[in-house]
Amino acid sequence: MRKMKKLVSLALSVVMAGMLFTSCGSDSAKTDTSGEATKTADSSKWSKEVKDIVSRGVLRVGVKNAVIGFGYQDPLSNEYTGMEISLAKDIADYLGVKVEYTAVTAATRTELLDSGDIDCVLATFTITDERKKSWDFSTPYYTDYVTVLVENSKNIKSIADLKDKKVGVSSGSTSAKSLVKEMIEKKVISGDKFNEEKFDPATWKEGVTFQQYDDYPTISTALSAGEVDAFCVDKSILAVYLTNGRSYIDDQFAPQEYGVATKKGSELSKVVDDLIKGWNSDGTTDKLISENKLK
Ligand code: GLU
Fold this sequence. Notes:
Layout: H1 2-24, H2 34-37, H3 48-56, E1 58-63, E2 66-67, E3 71-73, E4 80-81, H4 83-95, E5 98-103, H5 109-115, E6 120-122, H6 129-132, E7 135-137, E8 142-151, E9 165-170, H7 175-185, E10 208-213, H8 216-225, E11 230-234, H9 235-238, E12 246-248, E13 253-258, E14 261-263, H10 267-282, H11 284-291
Parallel strand pairs: 1-5, 1-6, 9-10, 9-11
Antiparallel strand pairs: 2-3, 3-4, 6-14, 7-14, 8-11, 8-12, 8-13
Helix pairs in contact: 1-10
This protein binds glutamic acid (GLU).
């Protein structure tokens, strides 16, 4: 019965999203999928990619496994929990298939999507104009901010204190560029050599430097060992590493809008976007945010 209710609510969400598109007159409104979408798992109008998922019976989703509240895998039970885990499950339910989670990092999520090992990514993945050139992103379902974690003994309290420091960041993340932009904005460093398109954390040497790592636990260890002076990424990701003797600096900056990423031009992109739009307007997203204590 609860499942039935959920399906009805999902279908309603999609109708609402469809109505929204029509009233905005967006490109998406030109494709008449809104009515069809209400017939849950009626894939007759879907393209091959979505049909393949339906006939496979599994939606393969890239998720984080160490971001509490978003994507977290319990080391004992192996169970995944978090807002992105629930959203992925809801998308799979809508398609009438099972969900399979694959743990990804900022560095691996796009490779796995490109290779077809996963169908979509729900992994604290920030929507940027640059990324939109390579992948499709849904409407955002959450907005986070970037901040910096430090060992209290280092006496680093603000953006200004990061001048001439070495900062640990994840490869493939927005973190280094966001921090440099903020330091320029706050006039801590000069922006003369900054080029938004060409910025590379590996070669940036103007008033702050970066060490890139493949995953977050390694950056945390490097911070303890003094290999880096600070650890910069989205606050939601840092939360798990905020242990005794560590603090965030006072500033948080660079809003990070998280969206579901799919292959560029994939039919799945529109299906997912319709669902997220519906859930954003019917309160499902807000409910997940509060259930996962993300507010
Ligand atoms: N959200 C940021 C990004 O997409 C931080 C990296 C991450 O998600 O791991 O670049």
